[in-house]
C-alpha cells in the first residue's frame, strides 16, 4: 500500500469546517464484502442485467426472480459488518458541528456503524413496500408465495429501493442537495459518479471537494483533494488527525 499523505491544509480546512456533506457509494461497503455494481469482474452489473433486476418492467416480467435476487442480497447484508470506513464517518460526525451523510447504498451499514440521520437516496433493502400502492409493509411471509403479497391490496411486495427509471423521493434528494450547496467541505466516497441525480451533488458542492476512490479521479482543481485508495484505510487516517 502506498503511503497515504493527508495535506496539512486539508486538515486545517476540516478543523475549521462548520458544515460537512458526504456522498457515499458502493465502494465504501466493498471492504465489508458487499460487491460494488460496476467493478469489471466482481461488480453486480458484470454478472446480472440491471434492466432485468433493477427496473419496474423487469419486476413485472419476472417478479419471483427479482424478489429472490434482492432477498439474497438482503441475506448477504445481514452476514457482514460495517468496516473502518463506515465507523470513521460516524466518528467524523462527532468532530464537526454539522454533518450530512447521503448514501446511494441500500445496505444500512452506515446506520449500523452509528451514523444518524443518514439520507438514503436509493432506499433500503431491509424495507419492503407494496408494488401497486407504494406503501411500506412491516412484515412479510415468503411461505405464502414469492413474492409475498401486500396485506392491504393483495398486490406483490417489492424491495423499498429506487430502481432505474424511478424518481428519488423528492424530500430525500432535496435534503442532500441543500447540504451540498451549503457545505464547507464535500466528500465523494466510493462512487463511480455514473448515476444521476446523486452524481450531480459533487458538481454542485460548495467549498472543498474530497474524493476517495480506487479509481484515479480526473478532475483536478485547487479546491479538490483526490485520494486514490481504499475508503476503509484513508478515512480512519484522516479522521484521527482531527
Ligand atoms: N474504497 C473506495 N472506493 C472503492 C472501493 C474502496 N474500498 N472499492 C471500490 N471503489 C470504487 C470503485 O472504483 C468505483 O468507482 O467505488 C466505485 C463504485 O462504483 P459503482 O459500482 O458504480 O457504485 P455506485 O457509484 O455506488 O453506483 C451508483 O448505481 O447501480 C446503481 O443504484 C445503484 O446505488 C447504485 C448506483
TrEMBL record:
Coiled coil located at which positions?
none
Which positions fall inside the Deacetylase sirtuin-type domain? 1-242
Cofactors required: Zn(2+)
According to its UniProt record, this protein's enzyme class is transferase
Taken from the UniProt entry, a GO cellular component term is:
cytoplasm
The residues listed in the UniProt record as binding Zn(2+), with positions renumbered to this chain, are 130, 150
Sequence positions that bind substrate: 70, 73
Localization recorded for this chain is: Cytoplasm
Q: What positions does UniProt annotate as the active site of this protein? A: 122
Query: Catalytic activity annotated for this protein?
Result: N(6)-succinyl-L-lysyl-[protein] + NAD(+) + H2O = 2''-O-succinyl-ADP-D-ribose + nicotinamide + L-lysyl-[protein]; N(6)-acetyl-L-lysyl-[protein] + NAD(+) + H2O = 2''-O-acetyl-ADP-D-ribose + nicotinamide + L-lysyl-[protein]
State the family it belongs to.
Belongs to the sirtuin family. Class III subfamily.
Q: PANTHER family in the record, alphabetically?
A: NAD-DEPENDENT PROTEIN DEACYLASE (PTHR11085:SF4), NAD-DEPENDENT PROTEIN DEACYLASE SIRTUIN-5, MITOCHONDRIAL-RELATED (PTHR11085)
Instruction: Give the protein's recorded name.
Output: NAD-dependent protein deacylase
Gene designation:
cobB
Amino acid at each position: 500500500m502506498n503511503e497515504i499523505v493527508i495535506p496539512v491544509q486539508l486538515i486545517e480546512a476540516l478543523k475549521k469546517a462548520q458544515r460537512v456533506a458526504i456522498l457515499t457509494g458502493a465502494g465504501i461497503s466493498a471492504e465489508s464484502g458487499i460487491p460494488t455494481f460496476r467493478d469489471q469482474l466482481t461488480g453486480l452489473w458484470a454478472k446480472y442485467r440491471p434492466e432485468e433486476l433493477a427496473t419496474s418492467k423487469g419486476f413485472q416480467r419476472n417478479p419471483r426472480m427479482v424478489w429472490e435476487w434482492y432477498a439474497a442480497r438482503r441475506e448477504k447484508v445481514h452476514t457482514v459488518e460495517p468496516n473502518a470506513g463506515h465507523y470513521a464517518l460516524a466518528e467524523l460526525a462527532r468532530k464537526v458541528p454539522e454533518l450530512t451523510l447521503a448514501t446511494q447504498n441500500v445496505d444500512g451499514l452506515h446506520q449500523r456503524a452509528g451514523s444518524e440521520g443518514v439520507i438514503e437516496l436509493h432506499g433500503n433493502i431491509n424495507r419492503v413496500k407494496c408494488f401497486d400502492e407504494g406503501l411500506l409493509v412491516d412484515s412479510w411471509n415468503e411461505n405464502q408465495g414469492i413474492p409475498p403479497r401486500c396485506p392491504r391490496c393483495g398486490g406483490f411486495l417489492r424491495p423499498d429501493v429506487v430502481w432505474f427509471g424511478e424518481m428519488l423521493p423528492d424530500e430525500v434528494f432535496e435534503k442532500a442537495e441543500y447540504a451540498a450547496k451549503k457545505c464547507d467541505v464535500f466528500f465523494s466516497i466510493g462512487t463511480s459518479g455514473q448515476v444521476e441525480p446523486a452524481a450531480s451533488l459533487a458538481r454542485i458542492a460548495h467549498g472543498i471537494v474530497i474524493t476517495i476512490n480506487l479509481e484515479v479521479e480526473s478532475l483536478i482543481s485547487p479546491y479538490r483533494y483526490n485520494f486514490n485508495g481504499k475508503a476503509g484505510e484513508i478515512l480512519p487516517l484522516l479522521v484521527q488527525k482531527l
